[in-house]
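Appendix C reproduces, verbatim, an entry submitted by the partner laboratory led by Prof. M.T., so that reviewers can inspect both the input and the predicted structure.
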Amino acid sequence: MLTAKDIMTTNVITVRKDTPVKKLAEILWKNKISGAPVLDEDGNVVSVVTESDLIDQNKKVHIPTMISILDSVIFLESSKKTEKDIKKMAGNTVQDICAMELVSVSEDTGLDEIATIMSEKKLHTLPVMRDDKLIGVIGKSDIIRSMANPSGQ
């Protein structure tokens, strides 16, 4: 069975938390990639930022449904989600628009598990880690390439 080390891209393009959103868009576009690992000040991977994060900056704001009863306003949906969406839409740096939750795999993770993680968590890019060190990245195109050419040739 194929593992992360068999399909990962080892020439990883990364961005820093303080990278401006405009620069991020240029990096993704010029390198024809859909996401990049995000590094903190010490060079540690803390998240992944994707094209979806950039697209979210241009979506319409959904105002949560609310009702008013006796001078009280009751939100029928989470106002925290709206607050998060507005913050993301107004973001100027990678740190402002990416989810600061890191989901990664090890180099020995099987292809079936990688596909399951990407599908269930709706991820496009997965960092491949050895201990705490970034050694590669897997995108959806890497999985499709492995399906089209399972021998790796």
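The radius of gyration is 18 Å. Additional entries are available on request from the coordinating office.
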